[in-house]
Amino acid sequence: MTSPARACIIGHPVKHSRSPMIHGHWLGKHGIDGSYGREDVPPEAAEDFIRSLAAHGYVGGNVTMPHKEAAFRAVSRLTPRAEALGAVNTVWYEDGVLWGDNTDITGFLENLDERAPGWDSRLKKAVVLGAGGAASAIAAGLRERGATEILVVNRTAEKADELARRLGDCIAARPWPPTSADLVGADLLVNTTSRGMNGKDDLDLDLSMLPADAVVTDAIYVPLETGLLAAAKARGLRTVDGLGMLLHQAKPGFERWFGKKPEVTRELRALVEADLQP
Ligand code: NAP
Questions:
Q1: Which residues span the domain enclosing 98?
Q2: Are residues 226 and 269 in the same domain?
Q3: What is the pLDDT of residues 148-195, one digit of tens each?
Q4: Could you tell me which of 34, 111, 122, 173 has the fewest CB atoms within 10 Å of its CB?
Q5: Entry pTM
Q6: Is 235 found in the same domain as 256?
Q7: Looking at the domain assignment, is residue 112 inside a domain?
Q8: Would the CB of 253 count as within 6 Å of ligand 1?
Q9: What is the mean pLDDT of each run of 10 residues along the chain (278 residues)?
């Protein structure tokens, strides 16, 4: 008899992660005898922990802040997306070999596909606020979908320059703060900074220069409606919150560990939304 498959989220801290709720929901839906837990691992132990995941009884897992770069170093094989980003958020075994992928790209793109259908049909220019891990994944995703000009606006100029160097020609670094001139002709505006999170200052950005058919989205999902999204809505623009990115990025891992393709349903979204209420 084979024992039930176990997966986990590895981070520091991981107490507030919603991943156990998402995967627990799918395990129940599919009637799978498996589990998904939390592993709070300090930075100095992260690389070794991930490298020896099977010895800890796991078939794989998700990796969150601040261990995505440690996971990149710990795995034996990388998908092209993980290789390009230098960060891994999903690990699994294939024939005993530990693989790493970065599914934040999928999460970002599928969230927009679901909630703003057609968003990329004429995509040319995008503006990305921030230059951290989420921004890299999002910029790479936008490039995959055909964006030809991606402005990366970041507080620390070196990080925006580094992102532009890593991802190539269509990315241009711009100084913080973002200006209305940056937004002229942009088909998409995305916030990946922590400005707008519960307890932090909102972004103060004049959206009047965005075209009427622009889409505005935020990687933040606590709160679901950030000040940026509220301002975009007030201007009549299409908006997409960050919760769907979290839900969609979880799908590839579940399929790898438990062998069933899960779906992001209204029921799952409502479950997590209820948990986000203060
Ligand atoms: P990160 O690598 O730490 O990057 C944080 C970014 O925010 C950096 O560009 C940083 O600028 C900027 N920033 C922080 N404080 C700022 C301030 N006061 N003013 C202006 N810029 C500021 O983090 P990350 O992993 O990219 O995550 C960023 C956000 O995305 C977080 O809110 C996270 O929860 C969210 N996220 C959501 C999902 C999802 O599934 N929805 C997935 C990943 C991340 P500097 O370079 O100057 O420090």
A1: 6-103+250-276
A2: no
A3: 999 999 999 999 999 999 888 899 999 999 999 999 999 999 999 999
A4: 122
A5: 0.95
A6: no
A7: no
A8: no
A9: 90 95 98 97 98 97 95 97 94 97 97 97 97 94 96 96 90 96 98 92 94 97 96 97 97 98 97 91
Q: Report the C-alpha gap between 222 and 224 in whole angstroms.
A: 5
Query: Which helix (H) or strand (E) element contains residue 24?
Result: helix 19-29
The tens digit of pLDDT for each residue in 45-68 reads 999 999 999 999 999 999 999 999
Q: How is residue 154 written in tokens?
A: 């970041």
Mutate to test the pocket of ligand 1, among 192, 204, 205 (most ligand atoms within 8 A of CB): 192
Buried b (16+ CB within 10 A) or exposed e, 113-123: bebbeebbeeb
C-alpha 95 to ligand 1 mean position (Å): 35
Q: What angle do CA 246, 193, 144 make, to 5 degrees?
A: 60
Token duo for residue 79: 């998908």
The domain total for the chain is 2
| Ligand 1 pocket, residue 104 CB under 6 Å | yes
**Residue 211 and residue 257 in one domain:** no
Is any atom of ligand 1 closer than 6 Å to the C-beta of 192? Answer: yes
Amino acid identity at 136: S
- Whether residue 121 lies inside any domain: the answer is yes
Q: Ligand 1 centroid vs 94 CA: distance in angstroms?
A: 32
CATH number at residue 184: 3.40.50.720
**Same domain, yes or no: 265 and 171:** no
